[in-house]
Amino acid sequence: MPGLTAPSDYAEEPPRHPDLRINSKEPFNAEPHRSALVSSYITPVDFFYKRNHGPIPKVDDISRYSVSINGLVNKHIQLSMSDIRLLPKYNVTATLQCAGNKRTAMSKVRKVRGVGWDVSALGNATWGGAKLSDVLELVGIPKLTSVTTLGGKHVEFVSVDKCKEEKGGPYKASIPLKQATDPDADVLLAYEMNGEIINRDHGYPLRVVVPGVIGARSVKWLDSISIIKEECQGFFMQKDYKMFPPTVDWDNIDWSTRRPQMDFPVQSAICTLEDVDVIKEGKARIAGYAVSGGGRGIERVDISVDGGKTWVEAHRYQKNSVPYISDGAQSDKWAWVLFEATLDVPANAEIVAKAVDSAANIQPEKVEDIWNLRGILNTSWHRIKIQNSVCVAQSKM
């Protein structure tokens, strides 16, 4: 790609916040501490999880950078950043979540493969850029199109990013054309994050943001867009990020039997406590996040302090001054919901959180029921085991 530095220069890593929990250094993958994650509705860029599959590219000459649009369309074009910035700009608040979020809890049931994420492999940002539906009109594809005149049904995003899983080739993924051309799907070519130029870790100078879908489809460091007949045949679409039942293991897996994962299911996590924590018996604030894919809102978040025998509904909010209503006109449909409840916590309690979305989808109770060999989509109830501080002190005597 024009403007991209040579591979020998990739080793120059961007600066990062020292409080991030580093899950792997090469490629760099890191998440914030859970308590920092929910300190604000909009996740600061420094505390937005970093997910990479290879060395981080560096564009050193933005004037030479461009994105090609090709494939099953009658018109092929090259777009510079100036061209993209001439299109109407939209700001979309959306949560991106790695499909491997909460993988460490799943690995405690049985070993899985993948980066060991805790509960913070997600973040909520306001993304600024051009809608993909507007961009595709430049090559003659009208809005709300499901198939082009040449038979294109999918939109493939190809990155500058090179990764070993693609045998040194670029990272790539695709979404259906009908989603790409739907203005209400809010798919963006984003050049801003939280009102500032997007940084290298998050895809500078241009990335795709596909709201409501697992983060693996929001391709960073965009190189090209291709209109194709079948879905992308890349590694991360065909041999990864697919949901298998607990009976499937590496000796009997058949990747072709499952479709690539797109929307993420309803999810929640408690962020003010560790999975095993010590607090005083009595009143405690329990807070965290809940989110669902596909633009579905959060209808309810239930909290239990007795392992799920009895429940209390938590208060839900996005913006402090605006009441949150699932599917409400004032609600950010692609964004997470924060929740909190102040409850009496007995000694040696088990605190549990579960969320219900606007389609009445509910989190599964047991991680064992959704265990899968890649450790993705662990949306089981989040459980916190509490040890009373007095009891802990006595045990040390």
UniProtKB/TrEMBL annotation:
GO BP annotation list: sulfur compound metabolic process
Composition skew (Basic and acidic residues), residue ranges: 13-24
EC number: 1.8.3.1
Cellular component GO terms held in the UniProt record: mitochondrion
Location of region: Disordered: 1-28
Pathway: Sulfur metabolism; Energy metabolism; sulfur metabolism
Moybdenum cofactor oxidoreductase dimerisation domain location: 260-388
Pfam families linked: Mo-co_dimer (PF03404), Oxidored_molyb (PF00174)
Domain Oxidoreductase molybdopterin-binding: 53-235
Oxidoreductase among keywords: yes
Protein name: Sulfite oxidase
Organism, scientific name: Lolium multiflorum
